[in-house]
Amino acid sequence: MGDKGALMMAPLATFPKGGVHPKANKDLSSALPIETMPDPSKVSLFLKQHVGTPCQVAVPHRPDPRGDQAVSEDLLFSSGHPGALFRLLVDKKDRVRQGDRIGEIGTQLGAVLHASVGGAVLGVKNILHYQVGKAPAIVIRTDPEAVPATCMPVDWRRFSREQIQERIAAAGIVGLGGAGFPTDVKLNVKPGVKLDTLILNGAECEPYITCDHRVMVEKAREIVEGAKILLTVLGITYCAIGVENNKPDAIAALNEAIDHADSTDGFKIEVKPLAVKYPQGSADQIMQSITGRVRPSGQRSSSIGIIVQNVYTTKMVYDAVVLGKPLTERVITVTGRAIARPANLRVKIGTHISEIADYLGGTTADLCKVVVGGPMMGFAVSDLDMPITKTTPGILFMNHDEVDARAHGPCIRCGFCLDACPMGLEPNNIGIYVEAGRGAETEPFGLMDDCFECGSCAYVCPAKRPLVQFIRLARLEINQARKLKEAREQKRKAG
Predict the structure, then answer these.
(1) Which of these, 256, 99, 273, lies nearest to 170 by C-alpha position?
(2) Which contiguous run of DSSP H or E holds residue 126?
(3) Half-sphere exposure of 191 toward its Cβ, with a 13 Å CA cutoff?
(4) Neighbour count for residue 226 (Cβ, 10 Å)
(5) Three-state DSSP class for 422?
(6) Does the reported pTM lie above 0.85?
């Protein structure tokens, strides 16, 4: 009894530095099964949906080996590459099928793009984006008569590691829990790097958001099988799935899937319940919670033997490798007290927020604020005529009771943000420098390498200072200063 009792009383794993405990507000949607929204009237697919380079709709033309050099109507000369011929993947009035590749990345960092619906291409247009203003997107008008793509399962064990990575890359998968780093690139670990642990991130600590929760409950078998696929690519055998302890149904579903999985593969997969603390779902924090290891500043997680993948990304890896299915849809949480009907909704990438809101019955009269993402790291928007992307986890429709609209004041030097920052940074000083017009001088505070804009600092600030926005402005000014310095250096070398 003694050992067992001590084990039961052992504290849940968590990270030691900083963190906050915002109200979860997950009860609005955590028990709602995933439902599928019908295809929208149109989709707008941004050419940049990930970390890295935007996709291109024109790719280098490779001449016919038989010697036919004729320039057909689907070829064009490139102004950026004089004399080079490029082939258009899609053009205005083209018809595409769901799953057709419509954006290429070449040798650059990024992920390919697929048509999320079948229909007619209306062109490449500048569309409102919730992070960057306007950005180019391929707009497709949906054909209600288009036949959906079908996928037949195959045994993934018949593929080599290289073939598995090729199928992941061909599916255009990016990280679905963060900034959208291309998954195939993350798995392509450099020779000599020694790995021993794969962590699947199922913390989903952001308030309101429950899409990962529902995927874990409803698709646990695919997640566990996807973990095996990732372990095979990485050449290791151990995987820990970190889940905050406020999701007991997800923990139970994953454990059941592990118990029923084929044990002859030689893998060890286990669920690690974690304490409920924000930002438990950050890569640095979940690594430290599960393994105790700390990533050195400026280095990748692989430098300490770990690769981290989101649980939902892992499910999509399963779909790509086993079903040959590209990333054309995703589950998002649509919630808040100003939407008529909250839901965990499977929607096509590129669906406009306005159509999602209409499908769920519209907004209530006391709508105060719309946020794309979560309340801690999301972006407030003033227009619903914009599309979701591969990395959109949710949309919040918040009423006046959910929003603190008080104006912010000057820094009172209380130090609360210093205690809350999980990375040990100085958000207070960054904000003061930005207000003084000296944002470019904040690089020594470590924001470029270590801040991931979790919002813990702003959450605890009694003066309600917009510290995350100050940090984003500081980053912008630092990058501008770097470019100016590089230009001056090039001019100096040119004489």
Answers:
(1) 99
(2) strand 119-129
(3) 0
(4) 27
(5) coil
(6) yes
